[in-house]
Amino acid sequence: MISALLVVTRRNVVQSAIFLITALLATAGIFLQLHAEFLFIVQVILYAGGIMVLFVFVIMLINLDVSIHQVQFNRQWWLGLLLALVLGAQLILAVAPRPIGLPLGEPAPASALEPSTQLVGRVLFNEYMLPFEIASILLLVAMIGAVVMAKKKV
Amino acid sequence: MIPTSHYLFLSLGVFTIGVIGVVTRRNVIIILMSIELMLNAVNINLVAFSRLVGSAEGHVFAIFVITDAAAEAAVGWASSLRFSGTVRHCWATKWICSNGRQRGLVFLGHDAN
What we know:
The complex is a heterodimer. Chain A contains six helices and no strands. Chain A is mainly alpha-helical. Chain B has helices at residues 4-24, 28-53, 57-86; strands at residues 91-93, 96-98.
């Protein structure tokens, strides 16, 4: 699965969009593996359906012929390498044996999350009601902002 | 049964690829895609830990992260379309969207600014 992701940042724009679809679907498969069926459905519909259509539309709207011949990478590869090393060191600390690392024991039994969608809905609408409403307001603001920004162009 | 550390390794790999994409690439479209990759890595982590603990709260947070990703994608793409309307090509050079007039100077690996 990670091999599909490795290619994403390497190729040109349209190819990387295709590989991004592959990566998102692989993530959806991992959700299914982790007994998160509702998130699986949300991931497939929202990401692979909605956001990728948006990506492909914008890629079609922007002319690509010039950009392929330009320089694709800037000079900041050392910064990327440094960040990757720092993140790797953090992970090694996290999965180190017990006195340093996290208490990663055996996972909870699968029956703890058994009616998955029902459980998610109950938690979402009982304890996280206010963040849910705030998320809806955020979506409204993003929609208005996107419309205003795309409209000013004319 | 796959242990949780494998999910952590996968998530870290995806997140690192996203970070490297954001820092290294100069195309705004690929930078936005890399941000989506990083958000996906965070989602994998959240769901894996929620599986480890056995509660559904990680799923709820993953739903919020997906919502934010959708909002961010809408605004990001709208702004990139806006820039591409005026500048025609938007290149991020050293965290700044460079102007289209400097495009002729950016060749053979030499940065204009």
